[in-house]
Design goal:
Largest sheet: none
Radius of gyration: 20 Å
CATH topology of the domain at 1-52: Arc Repressor Mutant, subunit A
Shape: elongated
Structural class: mainly alpha
Helix content: 55-70%
Number of helices: 9
């Protein structure tokens, strides 16, 4: 394997580009080692040195995704990335607090006017549901007079 970068070099290269969760790095690096214990030990070392951080990963995903997606979709993505449930649970209240404002902003960028008929209402509702916003938040966005 002369000339092949080490696992640590590969991992640091990935982390230099963006934050990764432990699960993401494990998946990316698994093809480059025959020894899962070696990979696990190297990831443990990166966590201890502060190069790999689930909390930083969570913060980055929330910051980047909040402008476009609702809390349900963000939480789903965090789970897919292998972020611990206790970290997700700790971030959820802040996500819920900004949910309505985020939904209104996403809606405003996509649609010029409130729905004029049932077909238009359904279209706008499906769009916001697809973005991961809760139905009660969507109702408040599409029917602001109910607040």
């Amino acid at each position: 394997m002369a000339g092949e970068p080490s696992l640590k070099t590969r991992a640091l290269g990935y982390l230099a580009r963006r934050e990764h969760s432990r699960l993401e790095l494990e998946k990316k690096l698994a093809a480059h080692t025959q020894d899962p214990a070696e990979l696990s030990a190297m990831l443990d070392a990166l966590e201890q040195l502060g190069f790999l951080s689930a909390r930083r990963m969570l913060e980055q995903v929330v910051q980047v995704r909040r402008k476009r997606f609702g809390s349900q979709r963000i939480v789903h993505e965090l789970r897919e990335k292998g972020i611990a449930e206790d970290l997700i649970a700790a971030a959820l209240p802040a996500l819920k607090q900004t949910e309505l404002d985020a939904a209104r902003e996403v809606w405003r960028r996509r649609f010029a006017a409130p729905p004029t008929d049932a077909k238009d209402h359904g279209k706008q509702m499906r769009f916001l549901l697809g973005r991961g916003f809760a139905p009660e938040v969507i109702r408040r966005v599409l029917l602001p007079r109910d607040e």
